[in-house]
């Protein structure tokens, strides 16, 4: 049988390790929520569209005219470009959108209008990144989102 001195030493050792257990639990919980998106992506984009545009290869305002599902549930969205802010000047842009994380979201309504910010992927195709960098026209209007015209660059 253990002596009282050994038992007291064991209890003190556990007491000293309690902060380590709490810290480990905190890290486990933080790791479980690290993928959560802190704010809705559209609100982040609408809040500072100039910064998003600067980091993108293409930025435009367009109408979603076709939406298909490709490999790995990747959306292939075809937009009629109504206004081009940056990137290739063309009347149609085909953009890939893939669900990467909780900050990704799908495009949903054909014939709806979006501000889209995309970059070229390894294959040279326009793609929306890990954060959904598109904003619906209604959200852009209600948030007062403003982008510079291509002529003002």
The averaged pLDDT comes out at 80
* Main sheet specs: 5 strands, mixed, barrel
- Helical segment count: 4
Would you count the extended β strands for me?
6
Q: What features would you describe in this structure?
A:
This protein has helices at residues 4-33, 41-47, 49-55, 137-143; strands spanning 58-69, 75-86, 92-97, 113-120, 126-128, 134-136. The chain is built from four helices and six strands. The protein is of the alpha+beta class and 153 residues long. A five-stranded mixed beta barrel has the order 1-2-3-5-4.
Can I get a quick summary?
The chain is α+β, with helices and mostly antiparallel strands and 153 residues long.
Give short descriptive properties of this protein:
153 residues; alpha+beta; five-stranded mixed β-barrel; 4 helices; 6 strands; 29% strand; elongated
Fold topology:
Blueprint: H1 4-33, H2 41-47, H3 49-55, E1 58-69, E2 75-86, E3 92-97, E4 113-120, E5 126-128, E6 134-136, H4 137-143
Parallel strand pairs: 3-5
Antiparallel strand pairs: 1-2, 1-4, 2-3, 4-5, 4-6
């Amino acid at each position: 049988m253990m002596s009282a001195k050994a038992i007291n030493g064991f209890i003190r050792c556990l007491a000293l390790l309690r902060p380590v257990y709490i810290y480990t639990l905190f890290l486990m919980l933080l790791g479980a929520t690290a993928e959560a998106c802190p704010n809705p992506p559209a609100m982040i984009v609408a809040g500072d569209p100039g910064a998003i545009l600067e980091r993108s290869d293409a930025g435009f305002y367009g109408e979603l005219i076709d939406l298909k599902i490709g490999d790995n549930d990747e959306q292939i969205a075809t937009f009629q470009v109504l206004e081009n802010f940056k990137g290739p000047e063309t009347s149609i842009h085909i953009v890939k959108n893939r669900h990467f994380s909780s900050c990704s979201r799908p495009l949903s309504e054909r014939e709806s209008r979006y501000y889209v910010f995309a970059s070229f992927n390894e294959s040279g195709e326009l793609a929306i990144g890990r954060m959904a960098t598109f904003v619906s026209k209604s959200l852009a209007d209600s948030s007062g989102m403003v982008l510079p015209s291509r002529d003002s660059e």
